[in-house]
What we know:
Number of helices of chain B: 10
Number of domains of chain A: 1
Oligomer: heterodimer
Radius of gyration of chain B: 17 Å
Shape of chain B: globular
Helix content of chain B: 40-55%
Amino acid sequence: xxxxxxxxxxxxxxxxxxxxxxxxxxxxxxxxxxxxxxxxxxxxxxxxxxxxxxxxxxxxxxxxxxxxxxxxxxxxxxxxxxxxxxxxxxxxxxxxxxxxxxxxxxxxxxxxxxxxxxxxxxxxxxxxxxxxxxxxxxxxxxxxxxxxxxxxxxxxxxxxxxxxxxxxxxxxxxxxxxxxxxxxxxxxxxxxxxxxxxxxxxxxxxxxxxxxxxxxxxxxxxxxxxxxxxxxxxxxxxxxxxxxxxxxxxxxxxxxxxxxxxxxxxxxxxxxxxxxxxxxxxxxxxxxxxxxxxxxxxxxxxxxxxxxxxx
Amino acid sequence: xxxxxxxxxxxxxxxxxxxxxxxxxxxxxxxxxxxxxxxxxxxxxxxxxxxxxxxxxxxxxxxxxxxxxxxxxxxxxxxxxxxxxxxxxxxxxxxxxxxxxxxxxxxxxxxxxxxxxxxxxxxxxxxxxxxxxxxxxxxxxxxxxxxxxxxxxxxxxxxxxxxxxxxxxxxxxxxxxxxxxxxxxxxxxxxxxxxxxxxxxxxxxxxxxxxxxxxxxxxxx
Lengths: 311, 221
């Protein structure tokens, strides 16, 4: 059997996760009583197995698989987001519309590759019609605050998120049929950067970047994580249409955006007085706790590839 | 009723219960928080805040299946007995306990209806506010006396306060389709009537016990 890039990738990921599982098992065995950090680490690694498995399975079905998977990811993220925001009973129809219309329409636009409407459906049509509908309800209590929260919710959880499967619709010359690897490249570098920032932060972290928002995000973690994720991206150039330095630069920009995403998400959580968005993914918190970096990086990554690499 | 009908009836109720619990989970990702009470097969009276028709479904879906099948929600006959469809849902699918809110001479007294169910060994879910709370600025209405009367008549049964979070946002009054939002049901420590405790004192204490379970109240203090 000929091994293609997808197989190499799967083997690589299994090796990395197996190493992580072995290390955490050794650490757990050495510790007399498992500390909360160790228990959490084991939980996190187990969740990574599931996430990589689900993503890999979806990728086997190409565009259909990834689009359907991201419909669910958007649904879970939007549900967590809206739960945290202040809503009133008069918002009922807008809220229902976000789940019942905006998610399906946005992903239908991804599926049909209707790029023109895909980019403006939410920021133009929804952003104008949602407040109109809210105004029609006649409830002006905290009007601007409610409308802003609703728009941000669909922006982050649906619009930004939908740019991941939309990568499969980009016509990159000489890269036909391999677009699924672009998704893999983005997710590995950005999620890898999260993990590397966590590791560098745990090992060397001293000075917090924004102490009032998140004490666990440190300069040491940020610099170490970004630098190593950039190298990781450069080393993965073979699965992309980029050369090594381009791959490194794009990985760097994506991971920097990912860091901003995590920072903004932390600020929102801090403001709402919660630690996690939800409890869907054991050890990690909710879907948004895992996807916050992805939603900030996906649109930027998408447009870089679209501007410089598509015909 | 023949043996077969009873058996069929039970099967339909079991299927409906599981289906509704599944739907409740798919829409709200509902998660029970056992903060002082754990699931057990003891007979109990669960009392909860009430703002949505989905409340008792959400609460029941947090219980393990066996316990769920022995737990019946108390609902208003003037609402759930009004149309044929509502009666079908309330009686045949969900086996709720319907009580008349307006006591007249020719209907069975609500207390008697509830005590009869407890006598059969089933647990109850009751909403001591007596009606759905539609005031967004009021977290919990004053309790009606039903809870006190039950506690007085059956001091052997545990009273469990249950705070239902967000359900009024998921399914507001008069709406049919639920908005998917995360919900939790927080089960507090069991409480009982202290001997000699007066009605008002007990109702105030149980109301406070329920209010204290709201996680948002804790974080804002």
